[in-house]
Amino acid sequence: MPISTTMRLIVELAERVQTVGAEMDLPYIAVSADIGSPEPMRGPDGRPFAETLFRWMDPTLEYWKDRSFALKSPLVHAARACAEPFFYSGGRFATWRPCPAIEVFSYEKMETAALGAAIVAPVYLPGGAIGAIVWASPDSTLDVEAIFAARAESLHALALRLLSAYHEAHGIEASAPPVRLTRREIQCLKWAAAGKTDAEIADIVQISLPTVRFHVTNAARKLDVAGRSQAIYRASTLGYIGAVETGNRPLTI
């Protein structure tokens, strides 16, 4: 069966990931299109890239077959805490700026004892999925900080292109455009996300209780989810619900 244009592009990008790794002396590569899913990234032949194109320094660590790997790996946990590329060297995690969110993972036991240096490019995708690409080496003397300074931006762009294309090609993220919520629907969901009951929202927004329920229910219908909590979650992944200020007061809209 002929390979689709998109799949051919994905293979070319994956090969570029491998080539760049060799250029940086970080030849060992691990990839995940969604760190919340045990499903590995696969090539056009259906086999995981981890078995065909990429290799890891510990041949006994078949991370793509271990469903609990994402719960144990400091590299994966750090990708949950930082949306920017970061590096691992000398037992510590760091990026281009002070970042306590990933520094807390420094000196944790690594899943691969031989890991000496690594650069990680997390990719935050529509719908709440997080993917990541890791370039690694067993050489602890490698000046990975200098490599990171020179390459971080291009590595991030490469990871974003590969994982975004992969998600779209495999239907992992919705192909339909995001729904449009009204100002009042967003307002009600924001207060609900801040922990307010429908009655409290009615008092705050100065509309009737049935009207609050109508807006929340209508938002859930548009978002194709069931219930208030799922509507809040889905709206937050689409960027409709932002940060909640101190005192559980959402930013006004």
Automatic annotation (TrEMBL):
Annotated NHR domain residues: 211-253
GO process annotations (BP): regulation of DNA-templated transcription
SUPFAM superfamilies in UniProt: C-terminal effector domain of the bipartite response regulators (SSF46894), Pheromone-binding domain of LuxR-like quorum-sensing transcription factors (SSF75516)
Domain called HTH luxR-type: residue spans: 174-239
Keywords noted in UniProt: DNA-binding, Transcription, Transcription regulation
Keyword Transcription (UniProt): yes
Pfam families documented for this protein: Autoind_bind (PF03472), GerE (PF00196)
GO terms of molecular function: DNA binding
Record has rRNA-binding as a keyword: no
Name this polypeptide is given: Helix-turn-helix transcriptional regulator
Taxonomic lineage of the native organism: Bacteria, Pseudomonadati, Pseudomonadota, Alphaproteobacteria, Caulobacterales
